[in-house]
């Protein structure tokens, strides 16, 4: 009986909850818009090698600082113009979508796996293990996020992989604390006691009985975590501490546009717009997810 | 009450020790040793290197080195900058007022605009104003502020010539001794005509840029907190008594709605102190954040180590203060419920 309950309450398994989730999600028009934009960006990122008109790293001699198509002096080969060394802006933006989404999703999935493991461990073992895990998370949270990321980058050096490592460490406490708090709340409930009495082993109890009931806030957190990670990584890229040139990372692309700002403002405009659009779309979607999945969280 | 204070204070002590441990480890994990960085620049002989190593205590056991580091910090010795040769603590306190001034102005802007905006949105729930405002707030929250800063410079400074591009004051026109370290106060004290206005104009753009995200957060938070309070019985009672609408909203509802908002404002000061890194870099604002970034590119690890330690300590202290104040306002927290 106990295991039956576990299966029935798993939110994703039967079609019922999914359908009801979609019904309440689509009521929120801006969330649906956000979802559409997110799908669009994912498609662009996946299909970048097919869609992009040029190689993002190729420098066209004699075609530097070209304006986008609606301005005088544009070149039909380069829809959104070219940057200071003659690389196609549109192609760089498309490949940039790959990098940003890759960062966001990597940070999210690693934080989810590590966060769930540590959070469940803290909730289950309690005592000294709980204290150690929570103390470490508190320490990470005590250091301001960008400063901590800078500290980590200073130690391990600037690169795309290290950006992911740094941002993951910075955002890990949110996941751990969230999982631990929801797991602790679930552990006091009758169905868990029933499962324990029925002889379910700890690992199975935590993974397949308790965890599914903690998922709603975790899904919301992971959606918003993706957008936070993208912003943080772009900030590091802008400071020269993230992905290194000539990688078409949006933040890094912005960093070397300052000298061109006055004479060729579009070189600066597009990467920033791309970041804003992506982050905004994910946040709109995240707000919708929160309202649809977990009405209790609506207030925040 | 005193018990709560002491308990909360005691909790920060292990955090400080852990922080010291992390910053201590940092300088050890950096690729290449700091002496070698120095040798590369100045061609020091192996004997001199050994001597330097001894002077800096790098030939001691690690545990002893950590103890010396902690001992130094407890006595106010946060190391010496490799580049400027001056104590890190001194450099930090020369630059910190600039960061603090910027942070406080940004917070002031965010609060003064965010709270009324959130209240209006709550009162006009679901109407056009509410939707437009919440859309704007989410956009602000999603804004890459380094790009936002560049856009503002492009429009306000380069095109409209309304504000200066960078720095804290026009050094060619005005000079005054730093008394408090706050440009606004020092320029007033200097008595030079126009100096205050100049300092103020330098502050405008960085304040907007740094204030954007907290403004969005405060507006969203005030709105939801206000919506919750407006449903309460005592608000209905106030209305039933026939009180004017503005009085019900502005006095009865707002007071209670603001409690969570105030906490979040306090906690954001800490985040902002550190978040100023990006803003200071864009506007060449001579504060702690810009200094940290420059220390990285100069490979000035002692400055970086001490700077990170100090800025984190400042944030931890601000958060502690917020907690204690909150305990004063809200007895439920104090008694640990």
Structural class of chain B: mainly alpha
Largest beta sheet of chain A, briefly?
none
Chain pair forming the biggest interface: A-B, 46 and 50 residues
Number of strands of chain A: 0
Describe this structure in words.
The complex is a heterodimer of chains A (300) and B (337). Chain A has 300 residues and is mostly helical. In chain A, 72% of the residues lie in helices and 0% in strands. Chain A contains eleven helices and no strands. In chain A, α4 (89-125) runs antiparallel to α9 (202-238) and α6 (145-156) packs across α7. The two termini of chain A are 36 Å apart. The relative contact order of chain A is 0.16. Chain B has 337 residues and is an all-alpha fold. Chain B has helices at residues 2-29, 34-42, 46-55, 62-74, 88-123, 128-141, 145-159, 183-190, 195-230, 233-240, 245-282, 288-297, 301-329, 331-334. The radius of gyration of chain B is 24 Å and the shape is globular. The relative contact order of chain B is 0.14. Chains A and B meet through α5, α6, α9 and α11 of A and α1, α6, α7, α9 and α11 of B.
Tag the structure with descriptive keywords.
heterodimer, A: 300 residues, mainly alpha, B: 337 residues, 14 helices, 77% helix
Topology:
The complex is a heterodimer of chains A (300) and B (337).
Chain A: H1 2-9, H2 15-26, H3 29-51, H4 89-125, H5 127-142, H6 145-156, H7 160-187, H8 190-197, H9 202-238, H10 250-255, H11 265-293
Helix pairs in contact in A: 1-8, 1-9, 2-11, 3-4, 3-11, 4-5, 4-7, 4-9, 4-11, 5-7, 6-7, 7-9, 9-11
Chain B: H1 2-29, H2 34-42, H3 46-55, H4 62-74, H5 88-123, H6 128-141, H7 145-159, H8 183-190, H9 195-230, H10 233-240, H11 245-282, H12 288-297, H13 301-329, H14 331-334
């Amino acid at each position: 009986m106990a295991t039956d309950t576990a299966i029935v309450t798993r939110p994703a398994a039967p079609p019922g909850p999914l359908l009801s989730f979609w019904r309440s999600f689509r009521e929120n028009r801006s969330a649906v818009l956000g979802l559409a934009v997110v799908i669009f960006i994912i498609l662009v990122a996946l299909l970048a090698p097919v869609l992009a008109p040029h190689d993002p790293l190729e420098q066209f001699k004699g075609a530097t600082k070209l304006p986008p198509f609606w301005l005088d002096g544009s070149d039909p080969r380069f829809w959104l113009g070219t940057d200071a060394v003659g690389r196609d802006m549109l192609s760089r933006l498309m490949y940039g979508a790959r990098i940003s989404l890759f960062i966001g999703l990597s940070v999210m999935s690693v934080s989810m796996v590590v966060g769930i493991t540590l959070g469940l461990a803290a909730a289950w073992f309690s005592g000294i293990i709980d204290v150690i895990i929570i103390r470490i998370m508190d320490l990470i949270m005590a250091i301001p996020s960008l400063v901590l990321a800078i500290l980590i980058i200073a130690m391990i050096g600037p690169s795309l992989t290290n950006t992911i490592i740094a941002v993951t460490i910075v955002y890990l406490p949110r996941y751990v604390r969230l999982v631990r708090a929801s797991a602790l709340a679930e552990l006091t409930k009758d169905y868990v006691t029933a499962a324990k009495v029925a002889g379910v082993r700890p690992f199975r109890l935590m993974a397949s009985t308790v965890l599914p009931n903690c998922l709603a806030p975790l899904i919301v957190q992971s959606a918003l975590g993706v957008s936070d990670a993208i912003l943080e990584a772009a900030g590091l890229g802008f400071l020269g501490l993230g992905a290194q040139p000539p990688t078409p990372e949006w933040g890094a692309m912005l960093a070397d546009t300052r000298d061109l700002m006055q004479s060729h403002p579009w070189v600066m405009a597009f990467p920033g717009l791309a970041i804003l659009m992506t982050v905004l779309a994910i946040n709109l979607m995240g707000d919708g997810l929160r309202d649809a999945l977990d009405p209790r969280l609506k207030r925040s | 009450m005193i018990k709560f204070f002491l308990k909360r204070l005691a909790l920060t002590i292990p955090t400080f020790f852990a922080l010291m441990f992390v910053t201590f480890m940092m300088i050890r994990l950096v690729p290449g040793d700091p002496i070698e960085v120095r040798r590369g620049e100045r061609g020091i002989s192996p004997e001199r290197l050994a001597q330097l190593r001894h002077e800096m205590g790098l030939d001691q056991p690690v545990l002893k080195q950590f103890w010396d580091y902690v001992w130094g910090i407890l006595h106010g010795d946060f190391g010496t900058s490799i580049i400027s040769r001056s104590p890190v603590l001194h450099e930090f306190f020369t630059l910190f007022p600039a960061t603090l001034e910027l942070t406080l102005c940004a917070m002031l802007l965010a609060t003064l605009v965010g709270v009324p905006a959130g209240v209006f949105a709550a009162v006009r729930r679901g109407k056009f104003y509410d939707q437009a405002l919440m859309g704007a707030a989410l956009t602000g929250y999603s804004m890459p502020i380094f790009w936002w800063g560049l856009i503002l410079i492009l429009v306000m400074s380069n095109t409209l010539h309304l504000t200066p591009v960078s720095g804290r004051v026009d050094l060619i026109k005005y000079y005054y001794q730093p008394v408090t370290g706050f440009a606004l106060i020092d320029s007033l004290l200097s008595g030079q005509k126009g100096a205050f206005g100049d300092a103020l104009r330098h502050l405008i753009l960085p304040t907007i840029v740094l204030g954007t995200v907290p403004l969005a957060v405060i507006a969203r938070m005030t709105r939801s907190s206000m919506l919750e309070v407006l449903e309460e019985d005592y608000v209905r009672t106030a209305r039933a008594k026939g009180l004017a609408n503005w009085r019900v909203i502005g006095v009865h509802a707002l007071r209670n709605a603001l409690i969570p908002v105030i906490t979040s404002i306090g906690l954001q000061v800490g985040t902002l102190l550190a978040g100023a890194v990006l803003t200071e870099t864009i506007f060449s604002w001579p504060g702690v954040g810009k200094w940290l970034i420059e220390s990285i590119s100069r490979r000035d690890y002692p400055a970086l180590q001490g700077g990170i330690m100090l800025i984190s300590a400042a944030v931890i202290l601000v958060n502690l203060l917020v907690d204690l104040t909150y305990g004063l306002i809200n007895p439920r927290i104090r008694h640990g419920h």
